[in-house]
C-alpha cells in the first residue's frame, strides 16, 4: 500500500520530518514494518504538502522513489512549516506510476492521502462518481482509486465538516467494495483527520505537537496505536478517536 504522515506543531523542516528517527518515513520507503499484505516497499513516488503562516499550501510530488529524488536533499531542507503532510506511494498493480498519481492530492486548501486500495476499482466507484459534477470528473488528477476518492471527498467537504464527510465516504465505499482498505489522511493546515480501516495508524499528541503516521518513527512513549475502524481528529493538545461504524445523520 503506502505510508503517510501528518504534522502540526512548532516549525520544522520537511526534510527532518522525513528522515528523523530510527524508523523514519525515509526508512519506511524501503523497510516498512507493518504493511499487512499490502506490498513490501513504498517506492512508486512520493509527495509533500506544507502550509505557510498565512495558510497558503505548497506542494511537491515525484514519481521517483523518495531516496533517489535530488529535491529531498536540495530542496526539502529549505522548506519549513508548522503544518506538513508527507506521502510515500506503493502503487496497486495495474495503476500508473507517474507524478500525478502521487499524493498528496490538493485543491489549494486541503491535502489528502490514501494508504489503501478500493477493491474492484473503477467499477466499484461508478455509482458514487455518477453523483459528481462533470467539472469534478474532468479535474481528476490520475486514473487511480486514491485520486477518485479525493474527488468524492472534496465534493462532500463543500457541504459537510471533515468528520461526517470521511465517515460517509468510508461507509459508501465499503458498502460497494467491502474488502477495501481505507486509511485516509486529510489536513487543512490547522487540523488533521484520519481513518484507520484495515491498515496501521499511530498518533503522537501533546500540548505542542500532533503527529498522525502509518507507523511510529521512534520509540517515544507518547505514541498511541489507533484501533481499526476508527476516525482520528488531531491538533496539538487534543486527540479525539471515534468509532467509524456509527450512523451518519
From TrEMBL:
Cited function: Catalyzes the hydrolysis of the gamma-glutamyl amide bond of hercynyl-gamma-L-glutamyl-L-cysteine sulfoxide to produce hercynylcysteine sulfoxide, a step in the biosynthesis pathway of ergothioneine.
Top-level taxon in the UniProt lineage: Bacteria
Domain Glutamine amidotransferase type-2: 2-249
Protein name according to UniProt: Gamma-glutamyl-hercynylcysteine sulfoxide hydrolase
Pathway assignment: Amino-acid biosynthesis; ergothioneine biosynthesis
EC number(s) per entry: 3.5.1.118
CDD domains: YafJ
Amino acid at each position: 500500500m503506502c505510508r503517510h504522515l501528518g504534522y502540526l506543531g512548532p516549525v520544522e523542516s520537511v526534510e527532518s520530518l522525513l528522515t528523523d528517527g530510527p524508523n523514519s518515513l525515509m526508512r519506511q520507503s524501503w523497510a516498512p514494518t507493518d504493511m499487512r499484505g499490502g506490498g513490501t516497499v513504498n517506492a512508486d513516488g512520493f509527495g509533500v504538502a506544507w502550509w505557510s503562516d498565512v495558510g497558503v499550501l505548497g506542494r511537491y510530488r515525484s514519481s521517483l522513489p523518495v531516496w533517489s529524488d535530488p529535491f529531498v536533499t536540495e530542496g526539502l531542507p529549505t522548506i519549513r512549516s508548522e503544518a506538513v503532510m508527507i506521502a510515500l506511494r506503493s502503487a496497486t498493480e495495474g495503476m500508473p506510476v507517474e507524478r500525478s498519481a502521487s499524493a498528496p492530492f490538493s485543491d489549494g486548501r486541503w491535502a489528502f492521502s490514501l494508504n489503501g486500495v478500493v477493491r474492484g476499482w473503477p467499477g466499484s466507484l461508478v455509482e458514487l462518481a455518477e453523483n459528481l459534477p462533470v467539472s469534478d470528473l474532468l479535474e481528476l488528477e490520475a486514473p487511480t482509486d486514491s485520486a477518485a476518492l479525493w474527488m468524492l471527498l472534496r465534493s462532500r467537504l463543500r457541504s459537510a465538516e471533515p468528520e461526517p464527510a470521511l465517515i460517509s465516504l468510508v461507509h459508501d465505499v465499503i458498502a460497494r467494495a467491502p474488502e477495501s482498505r481505507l486509511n485516509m489522511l486529510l489536513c487543512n493546515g490547522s487540523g488533521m483527520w484520519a481513518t484507520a480501516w484495515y491498515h496501521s495508524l499511530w498518533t503522537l499528541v501533546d500540548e505542542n505537537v500532533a503527529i498522525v503516521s502509518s507507523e511510529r518513527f521512534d520509540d517515544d512513549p507518547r505514541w498511541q496505536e489507533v484501533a481499526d475502524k476508527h476516525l482520528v481528529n488531531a491538533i496539538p493538545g487534543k486527540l479525539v478517536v471515534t468509532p467509524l461504524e456509527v450512523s451518519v445523520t
